[in-house]
Amino acid sequence: MEPVVFSVSDFVAYLNQTLEMAYPYVEVEGELSNFRVSKNKWVYFDIKDETATVRCFGTVYMLPGPLEDGMLVRIAGSPRLHPLYNFSFNVQSVVPVGDGALRKAADLLMAKLASEGLFEDSRKRPLPFPPERIALVTAGGSAAYADFVKIAAARWGGLQIVHYDVLVQGEQSAGQVVRALEQINKSAELADVVVLVRGGGSAEDLAAFNAERVVRAVAGSRVPTLVAIGHEVDLSLAELAADRRASTPSNAAELLLPDKHAELSRTMASRRQLATVLVQTVATRRVTLRHSREQLTRQLTQVFAQAEQQLGFARSLLLAYRPLRPLDQGFALVLRKGAIVRSVTAVKPGDEIEVKLTDGKMLSQVKSIKKTMNTGGKNVETTN
Amino acid sequence: MSKQPISYRAMQSELDDILVRLQAEDIELDQAIALHDKGQKLADEIEEYLKKAENTITKHRTEA
């Protein structure tokens, strides 16, 4: 049998076909070295152990965050023979493994994102209180889901909770969380708040919430975010980037929602205050009415007093101008047959006359008449 | 879907507003009585809401 002779290009193509069939997807764990990023897009590094080294190639989009030589990582992807640059591993994802590497990766990412201001307090927005519509991002059937829903129901009613069911650990977790956040922010009817929760777990279990794209998606959310990951002692970068952090999923529901029993008490207090204020208002109006009544009486009394004073004045004026007042001073009024006698010519001797004084009258008879004549400035009496 | 949480916020805010208006010194008595009655009715509605409203949960499945 004749040996098969390939051209170089055919050999590379044949080998790649074989590799694709044998290792369509493989995961390799080892130490990161010679890590470098080219043109802010391509990533080159080696993965090694004590006796072997494999060259790796990928894009920055698959990185979980900043990485550093010496970190233990697990890469996933497929091996390939490049026509020019020899053998390399085409990397689809890189995940730090082991507590030390995870902590190191989280520290590096934290420093990077902090320098961009992603965790600044000035970026934090207040959460609506109470919210109307909640986008809940967590694993369906998880304790975190059950705790949040249970506490929410105990505290408040009438909520619309839209549940985005995502994996909260494992390789696909970060991608699902990011997609859920994208969908929430593109939704026609925006939620009032995004609640991203997960129960406790190992550092590796919680790794998705320290992944750069998850942290950026939380920080970039148009809808305000509330994040609670793990137990009270755990603190993920997603929590730091959120508008508000809760210590546990139950605590998230407590922070987010008022207690309806407290609201009932508040409403009852408002009800009492309504009644008290109305009673006070009526009492105040009664006092005002009493004052008005008293003022009315005072004014009427004053009007009467003034009228009486005016009457007294008119009375004394009338008295002063009384026609018979001269009689009081000793003058007399002489009448004949009821008519006032103004001249001695109106009577003759023997006539009966009436002489009126201030305290009575006298009936008299004219004995004689003497008329006074004014002659040259002297009065001269003449007898008839 | 129910819009009750919006109603709740609006009702609570209106009740607070009524209390402030009711405490104005120059309020007319007729107006005070009307505000009081309206406030009590709102309090009834708030209490009814708080006692009866339930949460609704819908699923939005995220594609893998």
Give the structure's gist in a few sentences.
Chain A has 384 residues and is α/β, with parallel strands linked by helices.
Task: Describe the protein.
The complex is a heterodimer of chains A (384) and B (64). With 384 residues, chain A is α/β, with parallel strands linked by helices. Chain A has four domains: 8-96, Nucleic acid-binding proteins (OB fold (Dihydrolipoamide Acetyltransferase, E2P)), CATH 2.40.50.140; 131-258, Response regulator (Rossmann fold, 3-Layer(aba) Sandwich); 259-321; 326-383, no CATH class. Helices cover 38% and strands 27% of the residues of chain A. In chain A, the strands form four sheets. In chain A, strands 1-2-3-5-4 form a five-stranded mixed β-barrel. In chain A, β11 (333-336) and β12 form a beta hairpin. In chain A, α3 (143-155) runs parallel beside α7. Chain A is rod-shaped, with a radius of gyration of 59 Å. Chain A starts with 7 loop residues before the first helix and ends with a strand. Chain B is mainly alpha-helical and 64 residues long. Chain B has one domain (4-52). The radius of gyration of chain B is 18 Å and the shape is elongated. The A-B interface holds A 130-133, 135, 140, 149, 152-153, 156-166, 172, 176, 179-180, 183, 260, 263-264, 267-268, 270-271, 273-275, 277-278, 281-282, 285 and B 1-6, 8-9, 12, 15-16, 18-19, 22-23, 27, 29, 32-33, 36, 39-40, 43, 46-47, 49-64. β7 of chain A pairs parallel with β1 of chain B.
